[in-house]
């Protein structure tokens, strides 16, 4: 009897064992199928999570940029009709006046001219100067001389040379017209909704306009380009054509460059209708500030006034989240 019970028990156990043997392969197939559905990166993530040290996974405290805080109440009175003053690190506006009003940009247009040049040409590309008919500030290019794109950029950003800007525009594979189209396309890409160009040098035209806010955005974007940020801070330079037959002395038309420590550009502008314009970037006490003045009666003096006002009425403080 015991042996029969034992045998029966053995048979029962054997039957359960068979059921288990059938169950496990089926479970493995399902698990394999589910794993195959997971993207490979998730598998690696699961493995990494199983190996990571919980203490090492703690994130460092967030790094917060110093934030400008106004500490003074001195009024800022200027003749400039359009003004934007912005902290470059945080994009906080420190002062504005008619920021969304349209103005003639004059030669501050050449900021966009430089951007399109850098996007569509190489610095080493050679431009053959044609018979350029223009007015205003020039570097006195000679028809037929060959200049590198880089040297022409010095012409437009240091000396605000109209002939250099037109030489670059005319060199475009689609001609001057296509170059101007590219300027407007770039304005749309940067969401400069109140900016439009009809020429690469800044001549007055009813359809050639910008706003202080748009110009500030364009300027901040352009300063991220190392070529532009380097060139605009040069007080004076002499450039030559590729054959070293013609030499051009280029003096920075921004009188504050080389005069006020920390001023590193950016662009001047003037026409009779636009008045005096100036975009300035300055580094002082480790803080970068951008100043846009449009239609000013004394752009250099008023920019100095703004600089002193900013650093006398603002301090930069670090704000960290409380625990």
TrEMBL record:
What is a single molecular function from GO for this protein? serine-type D-Ala-D-Ala carboxypeptidase activity
Provide the alphabetized UniProt keywords. Cell shape, Cell wall biogenesis/degradation, Hydrolase, Peptidoglycan synthesis, Signal
Which residues are responsible for catalysis?
107, 110, 160
Biological process terms in GO annotation: cell wall organization; peptidoglycan biosynthetic process; proteolysis; regulation of cell shape
Q: Which residues bind substrate?
A: 267
Where is each Peptidase S11 D-alanyl-D-alanine carboxypeptidase A N-terminal domain found?
75-295
- Cross-referenced Gene3D superfamilies: DD-peptidase/beta-lactamase superfamily
At the top level, the lineage of the source is Bacteria
List the PANTHER family. D-ALANYL-D-ALANINE CARBOXYPEPTIDASE (PTHR21581), TRAFFICKING PROTEIN PARTICLE COMPLEX SUBUNIT 12 (PTHR21581:SF6)
Of which family is this protein a member?
A: Belongs to the peptidase S11 family.
Name assigned to this protein: Peptidase S11 D-alanyl-D-alanine carboxypeptidase A N-terminal domain-containing protein
* UniProt organism field: Candidatus Gottesmanbacteria bacterium GW2011_GWB1_43_11
